[in-house]
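Supplementary notes for students who missed Thursday's class. We covered one full example, reproduced here. Read the sequence, then the structure, then the short commentary at the end.
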Amino acid sequence: MANALDSVAAMRLAELQDPAGVKQVPTRNGFGEGVIEAGKKNRNVIAICADLSESTRMLGFKEALPDQYIEIGVSEQMLVAMAAGMASAGKVPFIASYAMFNPGRSWEQVRTTMALNETNVKIAGAHAGVSVGPDGATHQAIEDIAIMRCIPHMTVVVPCDSIQTKRATLAVAAMNGPVYLRFGREKTPVVTTEETPFELGKAQIFREGRDVAVVVCGILIYNALIAAEKLARDGIECMVVNNHTVKPMDEKAIVEAAEACGAVVTVEEHQIFGGMGSRVAEILAQRRPTPIEFVGVADQFGQSGDPAELIDVYKRQVNCTAIQAVELGNTFTFNGTQNGNVNTGGAALKAYVSAPNAMTLSPGPGSTAWTITGGGNPVINDAGNFSVTTGQFNLATAISISLSDATADASATANMIGGPFGNTSGGVTQISNSAAASFLGVDGLGTGTVSYTHLFPRDASSAK
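Structure (token representation):
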């Protein structure tokens, strides 16, 4: 995946092992620093604010570059219309308010005056998400990604921390066209560094893993990384993808992450309907159908409260959802009437097996537990051990099988439909075996199926 996603080493992330040592800075501070730098580099960059210069961090721009600053008061629709006109005259306006008011209140002007004419206006949507906290539902923009990503020509960017927000501000100042830049109010963990690369439209791997891809936009990237470390103790290795550009999304990166892991969880401080996760689902539905779960606000309004408590109330913790996605992504079926080789994502599942109508595999030390149930009274004959090697787990230790009702004997291999760790062909893949394996119906009727459900490794050391 090197072509679409940078390696974790290349990300040069901050040290996050000690929670007490993690730096916390509001993402709005990064915007304030970035817009000042952009204004100094290009005198055509101007800042227009709707009576919220301190809250949106435009106050520093006003003080540093007063000739490039305009205050228009509480008039968000005029804010957009004025900016579109000035952009048509060659200026690069950054317009700031709370996201609930701009683009919320001004959406028709954003659509018709700003985007339809492809003006070079940059909307700074501050105080987005429920992390606004005590301001409550009226001020918590959790629908803004949905209403902005559907507008033609619009670029939508949701940086993960204050450093990346500054980088994003500078990047959108340098590009031509309408942009929505979303950021928050509260102090949040800084996970990137000044050396972390940033490119609009290019997703980034912040943690490697092959069990489930956790795709995140915005400040919840830290929550996802912490959840991934906790899941790793249970042997579930999560890839964490920083998907900062919601539109245009890095489709290649999303597809490659799904292929590598076979299951996806999206995480955002936004409604699960119409947001970043919905776009991920649209991409995968068209290009690589994959089990997917969504973490976000589920068709509710916000409420007043402590930001951390609200994030917990709206269940944006990744653990359980990641497990659900892995369970979906690691279930596959053998058809007992066909022969062939199955290779899932370049890895082989090898079997020299004997089994009854239903069998349970007991793992050896450091191995993975597997449960096998008979869907049509299948019989797999020949006494022996069951050994599995896949792209996820290396089970060199033999796994014993409880035997009964062994009534048929044959030497064959089996077709596998789908795959737990990424089906690169999108259809029937290949299984290779080093010894005989027979998947037959009772009394040789040849009509049964056997479902294998992966129950996760007991020990993280058994995962590659």
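Commentary. Residues 204-328 form a domain with the Rossmann fold fold (CATH 3.40.50.920). The chain has three domains: 24-188, 204-328, 330-458. If anything here is unclear, bring it to office hours.
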